[in-house]
Amino acid sequence: NGSVIFFQAIQIMTGILLDCLGLLWMYLLFTQIVAFGATYTPIALLTAYPFWSSWLFIFSGAFTVLLEKRRSPFLVSYALVVNIISACISVIGLLLLSIEFIKYSKSSKNPLWPHVSTRKLVNSFRNICSY
């Protein structure tokens, strides 16, 4: 079925995108330390969530695409288990990000980028929304 392969391709692309996002976070963390001397380390990077979860999403999507090519009762049950684990890992990622937002908002009185004023951000957001 083409729609199943399409959705699993989205899962594979999500895994690749999450891996790239993790690399971007690592780059931003190191440049922040070098440029500002800041030592704030995100929880997602401490747990390496973007890296191990991305490989699980890629594996889960690829395994389900393989299931579409070759059907067997073992592959069906295995694909179901891998997709359930993948969904649970997604929930863990949402919880990590929620904890990150709460932790940062409670611990920080100063903005992360003090050279960007809130007024500029609000005006930029209004300009984007007006399109």
TrEMBL record:
* Principal subcellular localization: membrane
Q: Does the keyword Transmembrane apply?
A: yes
TM spans (from-to): 6-30, 42-63, 75-99
Has keyword RNA-binding?
Answer: no
Q: Which is one Pfam family of this protein?
A: CD20
A biological-process GO annotation: cell surface receptor signaling pathway
Name of the molecule in the record: Uncharacterized protein
Q: Which organism is it from?
A: Colobus angolensis palliatus (Peters' Angolan colobus)
Top-level taxonomy: Eukaryota, Metazoa, Chordata, Craniata, Vertebrata
